Amino acid sequence: MSSRLFRKTMRSVIKLNLLHALAGLEPWKALVLAFGVGLGLAFWSSVVGVNFFWVRIQIEHLGGTEEQKLHLGYLDQVNYGLWYLIFCPFLFMFISTAYASTALVTVRSSKFIVSFDKLRHDGRLALFGLMLLILFVGKNVWVERQDYKSLGLGWVQAPTLEQYRNQILETGPEDLTAAGKKFDQFLVTKKQEYLPRENIRRVLLVEVDPQLQIRNFWAMIAFVIVTKIWVGLWEALVLYVSGLTLVWGSYALAKLEPQLAISTDKKQYGVGWFFVPAFYLMSISILVQLFCIFRFCGNAIKGSYGKWDQYWSLLTLSPALVVIAVGSLILTKIHTFPQLPDQNYFPRNMKVIASLWLSSFVYISYLLLGYVHPQDQAVLVMCFRPFTGVLKKLFG
What we know:
Layout (H helix, E strand, L loop, with lengths): L1 H14 L2 H6 L3 H22 L5 E8 L2 E8 L6 H29 L16 H28 L7 H14 L2 E2 L10 E3 L4 E3 L4 E9 L8 H39 L2 H4 L10 H29 L7 H5 L5 H17 L13 H23 L5 H20 L1
Antiparallel strand pairs: 1-2, 1-6, 3-6, 4-5
Helix pairs in contact: 1-5, 3-4, 3-7, 4-9, 5-7, 7-11, 9-11, 9-12
């Protein structure tokens, strides 16, 4: 009875594996789906009134006072509006393309590899996917619930900032630190340097955009929840694909033999079956690393970087790391096979994508491990100003 119940439960888990269903979409459908969500969130932010707004703050520290104007709207933030409209759709497309490419290469190498689609019925992977979905969606919603109370600056804090605006008109600047708002070190954009957290005495809210108006509080709360669910979903999806890659590569490594891997012309070992999916998996990691840079720079100027959930999200860098680990083991095993003349393991496109990945990986490591001067903040603002201008015309 218990074994029958277990099998029935696992079949249900397999059917409910949303992450596998999303990964298995046709690439164009995945692109349209993600873009549709991004577009819907952009319109929703306009409806509730958090699309574009600014505040002016004064940071009093041991060395004096710094004042800066922060654009905090949902569509002002490169790690929200711009990411979900422009970059996240391509992330979904690359995931689906990587998924489909494993089926394509399996046609020619079915004796030692299986496609991602064949792994759909693996109960352990389905359970892994369900756990990832619950963990990452839960993490994003729960952390935002805490941040809503403790953070002072951001589009999520728009209702509170609107209330502070009325108080400022009556009593003057609002002391956010005295109100219990927590800040990490601030990036001062004019000087491109940090104010250490221990040197900050007060953070004063001096002015709030007079145009900021939350039209419906509960619609705003629902918007926050839906946005955070979408964040958790794509993070879980990226990690799920990493798990699929690990299982897929491990199976190939166990089954790989010289007579199965050699090319038809007998001149080299055919490793295209690995590098075709690897190209798209590396592309996924490049986009995720771009998001991490966006997130770092977007939060550093608000004094809100360095929370545990932001570091937890760095697990989404794993697709390329899994590719490198599995690829290294596969190439090591191939080197134990009888050597062939004219062997060329790395196609040109793989060298290019690996170089791009390495450059972005080194840079995000530089930013995160050192938590140092992100000189690209001003560059990011300048580069994306044309996109922001278009968004203001569409959604402003």
